[in-house]
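Extended Data, panel c. Modelled sequence:
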Amino acid sequence: MRLKDKVCFITGAGSGMGRTAAILFAQQGAKVAAVDLNPEGLEETVRLGAEQGGNILALTCNMTRAAEVAKAVAATVEHFGKLNVLYNNAGIMLAEDRSVVDTEEAVWDKTLAVNVKGIYLACKYAIPEMRRSGGGSIINIASFVALIGCSVPQDAYTASKGAVIALTKSLAVQFGPEGIRSNAICPGPIETPLMTEWLLTDPEAKAVRLARNPSGRFGRTEDIVNLGVYLASDESTWTNGAVMVVDGGITSNYF
């Protein structure tokens, strides 16, 4: 098992990529703290993980509130004894998020709070525990939209994911000498509830986006999480500060 004896704190684990990560990490031998704002979603994650013998602890938490994040990290260490991996997956992409000239301030603030402040708080409380554990791995989920422009903009989301990449680089330099490596994954469009709730219900919007992907399909959650397993494992001890694009080729396509 590639993650045997690892304790992993996975945010946004109540659905989508976070749920897949919690279950797959547990299958690989990790002890998982599954963190989400939605207790019902967490219950389902724990149930699905348990069916496959996974060891998953559910922790309800609002990642934008410092006291709740600190409590969740402390509960993880109290329950499992240490913390080795932080998988910052929690994020939002609001349908009201468009160009900067069309996006309401509240939409901008909410997006940046979840997508950037949430990672800041997770790192703030998780890194000291990783130090006590002798090192670890921080995995931040960014996005391909942070690397290219888009004629159908979601500027708050794009800005937030660019910030995630910049923060990842800073963390890699700061804490790499202590054995805490930090890397970012930039997924292309993935079929998760976050996207399907609005984008894939619009045939025209779906067709526009799918036409640009050389692979001919949207990504699946496991396409991203399989890379996450590598970054969480000891196989990646010399991978630090990397921005790894998993997008089916969309960022390589020009026409």
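The radius of gyration is 17 Å. This feature is highlighted in the accompanying rendering.
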